[in-house]
Amino acid sequence: MRVVIAEDAAMMREGLVRLLTDRGFEVCAAVADAEALRAAVDADRPDVAVVDIRMPPTHTDEGLRAAIDIRRDHPGVGVLVFSQYVETRYATRLLADRPAGVGYLLKDRVADVADFTDALIRVASGGTALDPEVVGHLMRAGTGVAELTPREREVLALMAEGRSNAGIATALVITPGVVEKHVANIFAKLGLPPSDGDNRRVLAVLRHLGG
Question: Residues where 4-aspartylphosphate occurs (predicted)?
Fold first, then answer.
């Protein structure tokens, strides 16, 4: 799997390169700013890009804006935002238009290397990987979840982590049948009818962001 890394902190950047290389990933570029990220993706066409949010020159939201450009110009490239910060404005745009192949993890909440690499593989394969704290911020910033019960919101957060119904049942100590009922209720309340062309589990997490 081919990866481009965009991280302005040199030690973090080199650490990610070593971590991924040691685990069999091919790091085809490791850059320190958003323009270099765009150029690297244009040149190397990786499977996935790992992108920090705050990079030169202003150290505000360059990474997220670059991620949006990459998703527009290279729809086959997955984007995993990896940052200390939750930035809802551009994150909403990144996730709402086409959530498949997008992830957003917080650096200080990734305690296990395997969790990070699993998320990277999932995003590169067209799935999603969202930290529950990020989901919470985006839910508060968006609309469409006011009707969900507290338990349905818990199920929704676990869906955002990419868990199956069985995985959700284990995490919440409930039966898979109960999870199925909660998931059906979520689909109904968010107005997501069955569709051959859409992944309702992904849309259920992110549909409200379009509002």
Answer: 52
